[in-house]
Specification:
The complex is a heterodimer of chains A (288) and B (385). By secondary structure, chain A is of the alpha/beta class. Helix content of chain A is 35%, strand content 23%. Chain A folds into two domains: 10-120, Rossmann fold, CATH 3.40.50.720; 139-287, Succinyl-CoA synthetase domains (Rossmann fold). In chain A, α3 (75-86) runs parallel beside α4 (102-115), α5 (156-167) crosses α9 (277-287) and α6 (188-197) packs parallel to α7. The radius of gyration of chain A is 18 Å and the shape is globular. Chain B is α+β, with helices and mostly antiparallel strands and 385 residues long. In chain B, α2 (28-38) packs antiparallel against α3. The chains are: A alpha/beta (288), B alpha+beta (385). Chains A and B meet through α4 and α5 of A and α10 of B.
């Protein structure tokens, strides 16, 4: 097993005719993901490297029985792409696009709760269950099938850490980048619950950063609800307060949301926090 | 994006909120003139993008125009948390009976707008939250249905014991919410919402923080941007699709991805170096972007060595390597450069860089250690830029 995506994941790519959409659709297919079609309004009936394109996501669901969509459309069209995806009948939406207005995300999330649709992102690299499926932009070659579940607010930092997991001879059950925006769909706690239930996951790596207090909430949740060992890494120990560090959600405000607070919180509930990327692999190796 | 108090107040006034009358001055003479026009005591308030203005001496009461001039002259020479004061707001002083707090913020946990109201106004709300959490009334608003009339009343009732007075002032709550929605804010805050001795409510201080993701659909608000010193470079970077924040060290870093950029800074610090900046090249790293990144980094005269840490996902390493090479040659760059490129198309990188003086390493730690070594070598040789 794995969480959220596996061999049965049937994917539609929203924005497949764009540069990033077509590039990553090809990479996902190479990996073995069932990318069955793409959607670009008014380009229905054409194809991208042999992948059929439809005008609407609903049509994609009807014709190709997709259950997942991944969104690459530019930010000014992303809100409607999110609503369209949620209204189409798919059960999982992965939004790569960065720059979705936060109030729009709030409305989309409300809509998704009513429709029982899971959202990963926005502003995320997507997810991968090694050996089964990849719905995202993560570089496939660094992942290896294994027993570590990875949850992260970051993209490239996750790849860096996965490299060190792989270097220790370990691999991943599922690796999920939940996104760097202030409002996101799946959060640490949602993913922790799923990894706890997943028999293939033996240990969990939680990658956090400055801003908000999701890491602190996750620490409390882990203490009471997670029996599997958890290792953490927190980025932003040297970040100045009041500045948005790239990610919309990565900001220390009112003196709260610092890396120090998060690391202390994890330590207080007995979760080991790696002091640098390479140590992540070493700590996990000790546990597994 | 943060607005100044006076900008927030102008927006609130436009929406019909009872904003205390005030005008902006950039010189002590202007301040005196405004105080004369008002013919009453005024508050002289520094306009800077930070809290704690009062404690720093940036907010003063003036009984006469001469006093206003004196205070303005002092305040306009202040630096509050490193930010020079360029403008002061002269506001008609109000005799205050009691201070309230009212704000709409975006709550990351409940994923909805949250209205916070408290009878403990005038203080830092984080402090109230710590010391008297029960003194803050919270009401979450469904982002789809919006604030319903009974909810606005509920907030007003939580603030005021006099029911008639509460009903009369419910509009302040609903208007503040509407402003929050209309300008895609992350925070719209009135603190304090002051009750005058005449029994009328006034917005005497205001704060608005806008959602950067939404500014594209609010060109009218973009015009309110007032860059702090040093922030011009951040904005120039933003226009080029980069995110850049200057720091005080001497190791310039170019990294793809915000998380990795922060982790790179942390690692530099761990091994005894000092990062000169945060720089995230975002989704792609075209040669144009690399060039822009380098020119921004080099404008910081403290930078003595540059570390590239690129882990390819969306970023293609061959593009980046070519860009680094082309740019450093074109700029005739003499600074030592360490490059770590891993990921999509990384096999071509070695070939591209093999005839250049650029140091190519395979791991992030190796890159950081090498960078610090080069810095120290340079220092021993007494090299300067």
């Amino acid at each position: 097993m794995s969480i959220i995506i596996d061999k049965n994941t049937r994917v539609c790519v929203q924005g497949i005719t764009g540069r990033e959409g077509s590039f990553h659709a090809a990479r996902m297919i190479e990996y073995g993901t069932k990318v069955l079609c793409g959607v670009t309004p008014a380009k229905g009936g054409t194809d991208v490297n042999g992948i059929p394109v439809y005008d609407t996501v609903r049509e994609a669901v009807e014709k190709e029985e997709v259950n997942t969509t991944i969104i690459f459309v530019p930010s000014r069209f992303a809100t409607d792409a999110l609503f369209e995806a949620g209204d189409s009948g798919v059960k999982l939406v992965v939004c790569i696009t960065e720059g979705v207005p936060v109030l729009d995300t709030a409305k989309v999330l409300k809509f998704y709760r009513e429709k029982d649709v899971l959202l990963v992102g926005p502003n995320c690299p997507g997810l991968i269950s090694p050996g089964k499926s990849k719905v995202g932009i993560l570089p496939s070659n660094i992942f290896k099938k294994g027993r570590i579940g990875v949850i992260s607010r970051s993209g490239t930092l996750t790849y860096e850490l996965v490299l060190h997991i792989t270097n220790q001879g370990l691999g991943e059950s599922t690796c999920i980048g939940i996104g760097g925006d202030p409002l996101i769909g799946l959060k640490f706690i949602d993913c922790l619950k799923m990894f706890e239930q997943d028999p293939e996951t033996e240990a969990i790596l939680l990658v956090g950063e400055i801003g908000g207090h999701d890491e602190e909430d996750a620490a409390d949740f882990i203490k009471d609800n997670i029996s599997k060992p958890v290792v953490s890494f927190i980025a932003g120990k040297t970040s100045p307060p009041g500045k948005r560090m790239g990610h919309a959600g990565a900001i220390i405000s009112g003196g709260s949301g610092t890396a120090k607070e998060k690391i202390e919180k994890f330590n207080s509930v007995g979760i080991k926090v790696a002091s640098e990327p390479e140590e992540v692999g070493i700590l996990l190796k000790e546990i597994v | 994006m943060n607005l100044h108090e006076y900008q927030a107040k102008e927006l609130m006034k436009k929406y019909g909120l009872p904003v205390q009358e005030g005008r902006i001055a950039t010189t002590p003479e202007q301040a005196k003139k405004i105080a004369e026009d008002y013919m009453c005591p005024v508050m002289v308030k520094a306009q800077v993008h930070t809290g704690g203005r009062g404690k720093a001496g940036g907010v003063k009461y003036a009984k006469t125009p001469d006093e206003a001039e004196k205070h303005a002259s002092k305040i306009l020479n202040l630096k509050i948390k490193h930010l020079p004061v360029k403008k002061v707001l002269l506001a008609k002083a109000i005799d205050i009976e009691k201070e309230y707090y009212l704000a709409v913020i975006m709550d990351r946990d409940k994923k909805s707008p949250l209205i916070m109201a408290s009878r403990e106004g005038g203080m830092d709300i984080e402090e109230v939250a710590r010391e008297k959490p029960n003194a803050i009334n919270k009401l979450w608003v469904d982002p789809v249905y919006g604030l319903l009339p009974h909810q606005a009343k509920q907030v007003a009732f939580s603030l005021f014991d006099n029911k008639i007075f509460a009903l009369k002032n419910t509009k302040i709550v609903s208007t503040l919410y509407q402003l929050f929605i209309d300008c895609d804010a992350q925070i719209t805050e009135i603190n304090p919402l002051a009750l005058s001795t005449q029994g009328k409510l006034w917005v005497t201080d205001a704060k608005i923080v806008l959602d950067d993701n939404s500014l594209a659909r609010h060109p009218e608000l973009e015009g309110l941007r007032d860059p702090d010193p040093g922030e011009e470079k951040e904005l120039e970077a933003k226009d080029a699709g980069l995110s850049y924040i200057p720091l005080t060290g001497n190791i310039g870093c170019v990294v793809n991805g915000a998380g990795l950029a922060m982790a790179t800074m942390d690692l530099i610090k761990k091994y005894g170096g000092e990062p000169a900046n945060f720089l995230d090249t975002g989704g792609s790293s075209s040669p144009e972007k690399v060039e822009k990144a380098l020119s921004i980094l080099l404008s910081d005269k403290n930078v003595c060595v540059i570390l590239f840490n690129i882990f390819g996902g969306m970023t293609r390493c061959d593009d980046v390597a070519k860009g680094i090479l082309k740019t450093t040659r074109a700029m005739n760059l003499k600074l030592p450069i360490v490059v770590r490129l891993t990921g999509t198309n990384d096999k071509e990188v070695k070939n591209i860089l093999k005839d250049s003086p650029i140091d190519s390493v395979t791991s992030m730690r190796e890159g950081v250690i090498k960078t610090i070594e080069l810095l120290e070598e340079g220092r021993e040789k007494g090299e300067e830029r």
